[in-house]
């Protein structure tokens, strides 16, 4: 009994040691958007609606590349757990080169396609203008963001995630200062928020690279882009990319329906969604910590430790889901006026955030198990499960939209319906898939076999 207690306590300490500093990196992009939302919201609902479209495009594009961090974390952790330190570091370098290449290509695509993408999302007239300018300015920082993702995955695998917190704090402070200067001091509006975000993204990247450079030198790791390693890194993340793409399809479908429901619903959706993205990263930090710990245990082929970690990661996700859910609901109730000058919009934001807050304990469980399965490299299963969830969600979402339109439902009812479908259908199907998979040992033995 005492031995089990010691194992559990050790697992909790290890999880906290990775999850707490990892949170800093995870909240960077959402907190940039949240800051932009709060400040741009002081301009008016049209500017806020434009930011909603633009930031959705940026967050979707960047979010699709989360596999750069997740696959690197899993790979480095497994190799470290197996005692192959240099192989793990070399895999991390390959991940960063892959991130740079993808980042440059993605940046060029978004700058040139900002108008048609924003128009396709439903933006028109002044809302379209704001969305386009935000995409074109904020996307200039994407190469830095993606390199930071890969670098953070490497640091988590090395069990040295502390620097991620300091890089995120630095980026957030710079973003706030530049937002105020550019949006209000220089009167650049939505464009100012995009430029501030771009600069903050590059600052975080430079901090992380400066920290990693001496680690790589000490271990005599080549910084040259080895094509075979980069291909391996891309192959590891292919299914994880599909998984992330399916999640983003569900999110983009939600914002498109919000756009169709009108400016008031879209503006309130932006405030709730940016807050949700920020709050959710507290739970994602637990999942990311679980990735590194599970990956290391698999590398060591320690099955009892894997079972112990699974239990503790689940409990941590649910427990923190309760804390975050209560805080989210309270924040929405008292802080909604910070996001808009319209009292009716603030009321919709407050009610919607209470509705969303109820589901956070389940979110915590879902994201914790996501981390476990990603840490085991179970990407193919996650890709299939998330694709199914996205398809079901889109179908139900369209039905809900048509029903609320037919009923001439007011904006408050439309907004609440939007969030209920997202949480019950999309998150519900995803979570059920994770629970069924994680409580069987198939993924454990498959991961160990692949490592061999």
| Tertiary shape | globular
End-to-end gap: 33 Å
In percent, how much strand structure appears in the residues?
Answer: under 5%
Number of helices: 17
Q: Which series of helices and strands comes N to C?
A: HHHHHHHHHHHHHHHHH
Query: How many structural domains can be distinguished in the coordinates?
Result: 1
Mean pLDDT: 82
Helix content: over 70%
Class of secondary structure makeup: mainly alpha
Q: Provide the gyration radius in Å.
A: 21 Å
Number of strands: 0
Largest sheet data:
none
Poorly predicted runs of 5 or more residues: none
Structural summary, described in words:
The chain is mostly helical and 452 residues long. Helix 4 packs antiparallel against helix 5, helix 4 runs parallel beside helix 11 and helix 11 (263-299) packs across helix 14. The mean pLDDT is 82. The chain is built from 17 helices and no strands. The chain starts with a helix and ends with a helix.
């Amino acid at each position: 009994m005492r031995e089990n207690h010691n194992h559990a306590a050790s697992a909790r300490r290890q999880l906290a040691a990775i999850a707490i500093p990892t949170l800093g990196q995870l909240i960077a992009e959402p907190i940039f958007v949240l800051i932009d939302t709060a400040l741009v919201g002081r301009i008016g609902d049209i500017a806020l609606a434009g930011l909603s479209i633009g930031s959705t495009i940026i967050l979707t594009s960047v979010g699709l590349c989360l596999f750069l961090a997740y696959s690197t974390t899993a790979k480095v952790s497994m190799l470290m757990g197996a005692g192959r330190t240099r192989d793990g570091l070399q895999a991390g370098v390959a991940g960063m080169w892959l991130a740079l290449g993808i980042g440059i290509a993605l940046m060029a695509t978004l700058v040139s396609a900002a108008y048609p993408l924003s128009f396709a999302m439903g933006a028109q007239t002044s809302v379209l203008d704001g969305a386009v300018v935000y995409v074109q300015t904020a996307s200039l920082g994407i190469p830095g963001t993606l390199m930071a993702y890969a670098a953070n995955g490497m640091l988590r695998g090395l069990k040295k995630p502390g620097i991620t917190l300091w890089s995120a704090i630095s980026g957030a402070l710079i973003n706030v200062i530049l937002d105020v200067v550019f949006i209000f001091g220089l009167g650049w509006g939505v464009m100012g928020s995009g430029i501030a975000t771009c600069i903050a993204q590059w600052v975080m990247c430079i901090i992380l690279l400066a920290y990693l450079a001496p680690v790589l030198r000490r271990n005599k790791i080549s910084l040259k882009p080895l094509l075979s390693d980069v291909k391996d890194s891309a192959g590891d993340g292919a299914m994880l990319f599909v998984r992330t793409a399916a999640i983003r399809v569900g999110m983009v479908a939600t914002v498109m329906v919000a756009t169709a429901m009108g400016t008031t619903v879209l503006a309130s959706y932006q405030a709730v969604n940016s807050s949700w993205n920020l709050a959710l990263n507290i739970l994602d930090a637990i999942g990311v910590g679980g990735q590194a710990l599970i990956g290391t245990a698999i590398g060591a082929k320690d099955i009892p430790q894997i079972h112990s970690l699974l239990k503790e990661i689940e409990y941590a996700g649910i427990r923190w889901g309760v804390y975050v859910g209560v805080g989210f609901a309270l924040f929405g109730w008292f802080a909604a006026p910070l996001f808009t000058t319209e009292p009716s919009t603030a009321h919709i934001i407050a009610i919607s955030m209470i509705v969303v807050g109820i589901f956070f304990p389940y979110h915590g469980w879902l994201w914790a198990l996501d981390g476990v399965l990603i840490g085991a490299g179970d990407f193919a299963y996650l890709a299939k499960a998330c694709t199914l969830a996205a398809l079901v969600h889109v179908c139900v979402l369209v039905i809900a939209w048509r029903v609320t339109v037919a009923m001439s439902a007011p904006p408050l009812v439309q907004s609440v319906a939007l969030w209920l479908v997202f949480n019950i259908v999309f998150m519900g199907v995803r979570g059920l898939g994770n629970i069924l998979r994680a409580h069987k040992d198939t993924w454990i033995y498959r991961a160990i076999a692949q490592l061999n």
